[in-house]
Amino acid sequence: MIGKKNIVFGFLYLVLTASLGPYMVVKMLPDVGVAQSEKQAKVGRLQQLKINQFEEDLEKMTAEQIAQANTDGILAMNKLINSRMPVDSIKAGPHAHGNLEALLNIVAGLVLCFIAVATWFKQIISWIFILGAVLHSGMLLMLNLGQSWALTLLPVGPWLVLLGLFLMGIAAFIGFKGQLVKD
């Protein structure tokens, strides 16, 4: 059965890409929590100073002290944004796209079992879906691991996924019979 490799690949790839979720929580989110606490403290102080008309300990603050409080608040917000970048890059890249492309491979594998078209056409569709996933979300993962060479292969992946969807549509139009097809 030609779709079997897509189903197997899809489930194994889903385990890999879905496991990035717990990785982000365990390894990356504690840094975000520290930055969040710091931001709340600095911005909270700034808000309190404004409410108190920039008096602290019953003394008017100087322009330099006010500017320093503003700077501290802005830098704390920037630190929070920067601490979220690694989490967001994995969440929006290899985690989300990888999960989707794994599920696409599972569905493509199942559909290939029910389509009566030439075996070579099924093989092409099957390998296009696998390569599309690896060259898209796989390369996004490699980029997150610091492998800059992956950027050269990255643009090919999304086009392969789209090509696979297009070819699957043609194959379904030509050969969908609604019953399991033996190759």
How can the largest sheet be summarized?
2 strands, antiparallel
* Average predicted confidence as pLDDT: 82
Series of H and E elements:
HHEEHHHH
Please give the count of helices: 6
User: What count of domains describes the coordinates?
Assistant: 1
**Count of strand segments:** 2
Strand order of the largest sheet: 1-2
Low-confidence residue ranges: none
Termini Cα gap: 6 Å
Specify the oligomeric state.
Answer: single chain
**Rg from Cα:** 26 Å
**Any idea what the shape is?**
rod-shaped
Class by alpha and beta content: mainly alpha
How much helicity do the residues have?
Answer: over 70%
* Residue fraction in strands: under 5%
